[in-house]
Specification:
Shape: globular
Structural class: alpha/beta
Number of domains: 1
CATH topology: Rossmann fold
Strand content: 25-35%
Largest sheet: 7 strands, mixed
Number of helices: 4
Strand order of the largest sheet: 1-7-6-2-5-4-3
CATH class: Alpha Beta
Distance between the termini: 13 Å
Number of strands: 7
CATH architecture: 3-Layer(aba) Sandwich
Radius of gyration: 14 Å
């Protein structure tokens, strides 16, 4: 299923992430693509806040993988930023496929993993519109039917 939604500001972007959190399960992969500054981290912060994270989640740009686990959040989540990877082969070294069994993955810059790396992911794209609003578009595989959009 494909769809789109207009997000008028950063608060709306975080609110869309919070809506996703209600449906997120261990084993899920959510990819977040878009230009620098489009709102990928804001969306992820909305997910994490709705899962119970009390403080603002840092961008995982330098850590690459930022883990969150109970009791900090209601389920294990890995917030991943692949921007600094130079070679798709480096993704294998992160051990994400194994970690996915017990955690949900929020992956920024998924294209750095190579085309089709997570074929079953909820693929989200955030674009900046001329007026500064954001356009959230998605491709949701069958596993997300009834879970996204909410």
């Amino acid at each position: 299923m494909r769809g789109e939604r207009r997000l008028v500001d950063a608060a709306a972007t975080e609110a869309a992430g919070a809506q996703l959190a209600a449906s997120l399960r261990a084993g899920d992969v959510v990819t977040l693509s878009g230009d620098l500054g489009a709102g990928k981290t804001s969306f992820a912060r909305g997910v994490l806040a709705a899962l119970g994270l009390a403080e603002e989640a840092p961008s995982p740009t330098f850590a690459i993988v930022q883990p969150y686990e109970p009791p900090e959040v209601r389920l294990d989540v890995l917030h991943i930023d692949l921007y600094r990877l130079d070679d798709p082969a480096e993704v294998e070294e992160l051990g994400l496929d194994e970690a996915r069994h017990d955690a949900a993955l929020l992956v920024e810059w998924p294209e750095r993993a190579g085309p089709g790396y997570w074929p079953d992911a909820l693929a989200l794209h955030i674009a900046i519109e001329q007026d500064g609003a954001r356009r959230l578009t998605w491709a949701a595989p069958d596993a997300w039917d009834g879970r996204w959009p909410r």
